[in-house]
Amino acid sequence: MVIIINISDIYIFIPELYLTLTVFILLIYGIFYSTNKYYGYPILSKNFGYLVVITFTYILFLIINTPDFLSTYFPSFFFFNNSLKWIKTIFLLVGICYVFLVISNISLEKLNVFEFFLLFILSILSIFLIISTFDLLSIYISLEMLNLIFYVLATIRRTSEFSTEAGLKYFILGVFSTGLLLFGIALIYGCIGITNFIDLSLFFQSIMKEKSILEIPTDLLLGLVFISTAFFFKLSAAPFHMWSPDVYEGTLTSIITLFIIFTKITIFFLFINLFGTSLFELFNVWQKLTLICAFFSLFLGTFIAFAQTKFKRFLAYSSINHVGFIMIAVSSINYNGFYSLIFYMMIYILINLGIFASLLSLRNFRNYKFNHQIRYISEFTILSKTHPIIAFSILIILFSISGIPPIAGFFTKLIVFLTCLKSSLYSLVIFAITISCLATFYYIRIIKIIYFDNCNVWLIYVPMDKSKAFVLSFSVLLLTFFCLNPNLIINSIYIISTIN
Amino acid sequence: MFKEYSILLTFICLTFLLATIVFILSYIFSVQKADAEKISAYECGFNPFDDARTTFDIRFYLVAILFLIFDLEVSFLYPWSVCIGYLNNQGFYVICTFLFILTIGFLYEWFKGALDWE
């Protein structure tokens, strides 16, 4: 096999190339300045944050101006089509919003490592590589790159034992799940000798014309099961969700936004790329797997969240619930499934940006040098009197998570249920509707704690800064006024899902 | 089915046997009469002043990790250097980019102070 890197590949690869060059230059800049005695060892973390925003706007410009292609590059390891342009644009916009969220918390939390934003740029690079993979091997390489970056980010606060314990748990379990992924890839390769997605799809299309699903060799189906298990693991879908509450509770809140938003979306896109296009003929197998995971995720995500008293663990179980809903959309094998999935993703991004904007802004102010992030749900108590706007934002976002009309979350769940009904998964819809009714209890309980509980000691919070307020208002306004003019989001989803 | 692996099986069994024989024989044929003075810790004839264990210095781990990274870099250089005669310009520039990326990592590590033993 001869690997030829054509010069025309460079046109498609320019955004990623620019990202790598930016990482090199920023790394050299950071290391030479921050260890320089003449400049007084400056702390460059916020500087890097603004540089990341500039970089992302440049890359947005680069991506929007790439010509319309449909090709594979680096001989068939990666692919590119027009919808990928818009998905990358969305990732960059969410990345810019993330930098706005986190930029002032860095000085409050005294996180003085400049490598934090460098790792963030690298994670965006690896996300770009993941969503454009076209080969089983490059899934492993790009997914492992993202995971390594996130293992390091989980333990960025080296002095906290809580954080290192969470990072170690994440590392061990994540590496284990990557081992499962590799084993599945090896089984598939060992059975048929094909790793490229196009070859896989041609193979399965020709095979399924003649044989039935029962005559497919067991190694192949076992490889499929292992690969999907690894993906469910990374997504924290039940019954592989055990690591996520501990990891989400231990790591810093600034980094959990990264984990919750970016990992789920990339792995769902990867899931669609692999199972929706190349292994689509085996949908009998993977539909059952995703159905089982959807069932368990919904069940465990709601029922364990009843007993949670800490807010980040609660958010972890809430995201397991979300993953369950997205699994329902994935397991309904019709075209609307893809559409509803992207719609759910977008509202999921907005919800999480909003909830983390409000959570990151609630730092309890003890004195001028000691402030800490609130941890328990009961610490939300008198928020309606001290911070009425933040309380109202949390109300809107919790209504969106629980699916109360006319907030946008209701429409996402509605469309997911309608696609599910279209592929005749009736009992799953009934189960999901009852589960979401049960789940509204503890979302409304938080609203009750915010608005109606009394306490004797009122907490003073560090004032919210402008960039966080911008992101919070952006998400809350989009969520509330989505019902009046849904075209803003629906058109972009239509563009993404129909260009293929 | 796998006739050519029979030699490996005999090899494994023989090595296992040899190792266990050497280990067990020394246990069986030695005279063991444990005495309180004989099994106590030895520190130049005196009673031990302090605990013999010290905390593990993290510098050793750092050196091992750095060795691993750069040793793997070198081990990627070896096959390239063997077949560079058959490759065109692309072969040269690929290894240039590889070494460039690793040099940037080396600069980072150097200026962060990972190479100072103090």
Note down, in words, how this protein is organized:
- Chain A is mainly alpha-helical.
- Helix content of chain A is 73%, strand content 3%.
- Chain A has a domain of 169 residues.
- Chain A has 20 helices and 4 strands.
- In chain A, the strands form 2 sheets. In chain A, strands 1-2 form a two-stranded antiparallel ribbon.
- In chain A, strand 3 and strand 4 form a beta hairpin.
- Chain B has 3 helices and no strands.
- Chain B has a single domain, classed as NADH:ubiquinone/plastoquinone oxidoreductase, chain 3 (Methane Monooxygenase Hydroxylase, Chain G, domain 1).
- In chain B, helix 2 packs antiparallel against helix 3.
- With 118 residues, chain B is mostly helical.
- Chain B is 62% helix and 0% strand.
- The model of chain B has no long low-confidence stretch (mean pLDDT 88).
- Classes of the chains: A mainly alpha (500), B mainly alpha (118).
- The interface between A and B is small, with 7 and 8 residues.
- Chain B: Its EC number is 7.1.1.2.
- Chain B: GO terms for molecular function: NADH dehydrogenase (ubiquinone) activity; oxidoreductase activity, acting on NAD(P)H.
- Chain B: It holds the Pfam family Oxidored_q4.
- Chain B: It catalyses: a ubiquinone + NADH + 5 H(+)(in) = a ubiquinol + NAD(+) + 4 H(+)(out).
Largest sheet of chain B: none
- Which overall shape of chain A is indicated by the principal axes computed on the Cα atoms? globular
Percent in strands of chain B: under 5%
Shape of chain B: flat
* Structural class based on helices, strands and sheet pairing of chain A: mainly alpha
- Might you state the CATH topology name of chain B? Methane Monooxygenase Hydroxylase, Chain G, domain 1
| Poorly predicted regions of chain A | none
- The strands making up the biggest β-sheet of chain A line up spatially as 1-2
Q: What is the radius of gyration of chain B computed over CA atoms, rounded to a whole number of angstroms?
A: 26 Å
CATH superfamily caption of chain B:
NADH:ubiquinone/plastoquinone oxidoreductase, chain 3
Tally of distinct domains of chain B: 1
Oligomeric composition of the shown chains: heterodimer
Which regions of chain B are unreliable across 5 or more consecutive residues at pLDDT < 50? none
Helix count, DSSP H or I runs of 4 or more residues of chain B: 3
How far from one another are the termini of chain B? Answer: 59 Å
- Based on the coordinates given, report the CATH architecture of chain B: Up-down Bundle
